Every structure is written in structure tokens, then in C-alpha cells.
């Protein structure tokens, strides 16, 4: 049904032409079907939003502006600082934001774009951090797939330290 609405947007009655749609992808995560449409301009997206509000109700469509406030593209993690063998400072050569980033990119892919470690006012690691993925619906779907079949947590070793990962919600 969602494809019918996209056809309506692009059809004779639609105010949007095919050139206005830069990207169109369908995702099925077993809970719901998500369709990501990237428009050429914000103005075109606003026309699509207005049409969704006016005519999309009969399809049960929900229109979301996908930006970093909506896309859940982060994973928080905890680790035991004792695994660092007393080298718990932020300037640890073996376990730092850059080495973890490179390791996770090798394990999970290039859509991992940033790692942040939490530390106190003395520069000592506190045992927590955050992994940020690309700001795209594809990255959110990647994160969903990483946690599929788990109880909401995922353990992974990075730089010889076990990270207990959880999805970050909002």
C-alpha cells in the first residue's frame, strides 16, 4: 500500500516529479515496514508531508522527518576499567576512541563513525562510552540487526576489552 501512495505522489495527481526523489528504499524489520524517501529539497519533502497528512491516512502511513533526533543511530556501552591493567587514563595507547573506532569499523562496517569514551575530571576512564553510526535509516536498520535475537544487550570484544553494549533510545 505504501508503494501505491508513492505512486500517487509521483503520478498525475502528485505535485512531485521523479527527479525530486533522490533515493527510495524499503526496509522490513519484522515489526513494521519502513520506507525511506530522500527528497531533492526540504520544500519538496514538505509537499510530500502535506499529501501524507491529507491522503495518507487511508493507508495508515506515518510521516517522520528523519534527522538525528529521530534516527536511533547510537549504542552505549559499559566496560570494566580493571581489564585495562591499571592503565585507565584517557591517553591509553591501546584502548582509546581511535583504536576502538578502527576495531569496530572492521567488525561492524564503515557506518561506525565515532566512539566517545567517558572520563572524569582527572582523565580517568569511568567505564562507559558511546558508539555513533551514520545518520541514516540504513545505519539504524544495521543497529537493529546487530541486536536481533538478543535480550537487548550485546557483548563484543574491542581492543582486548569486553564491551557490554545496549541500544541508546532517544
List keywords for this structure.
alpha+beta; 170 residues; Alpha-Beta Plaits; 2 domains; single chain; five-stranded antiparallel beta sheet; two-stranded antiparallel sheet
Architecture overview:
- The protein is of the alpha+beta class.
- The chain folds into two domains: 2-59, no CATH class; 74-167, 2-Layer Sandwich (Alpha-Beta Plaits).
- It is built from four helices and seven strands.
- It has helices spanning 2-10, 42-55, 97-108, 137-147; strands at 21-28, 33-39, 74-78, 112-119, 125-133, 153-158, 161-167.
- A hairpin with a 2-residue loop joins β6 and β7.
- The mean pLDDT is 82.
Strand order of the largest sheet: 4-5-3-7-6
Radius of gyration: 21 Å
Whole-number tally of structural domains: 2
Mean pLDDT: 82
Which overall shape is indicated by the principal axes computed on the Cα atoms? elongated
Name of the CATH class of the largest domain = Alpha Beta
Strand content: 25-35%
What's a concise summary of this model?
The chain is of the alpha+beta class and 170 residues long. The chain is built from 4 helices and 7 strands.
List strands and helices in order, with pairings.
Elements: H1 2-10, E1 21-28, E2 33-39, H2 42-55, E3 74-78, H3 97-108, E4 112-119, E5 125-133, H4 137-147, E6 153-158, E7 161-167
Antiparallel strand pairs: 1-2, 3-5, 3-7, 4-5, 6-7
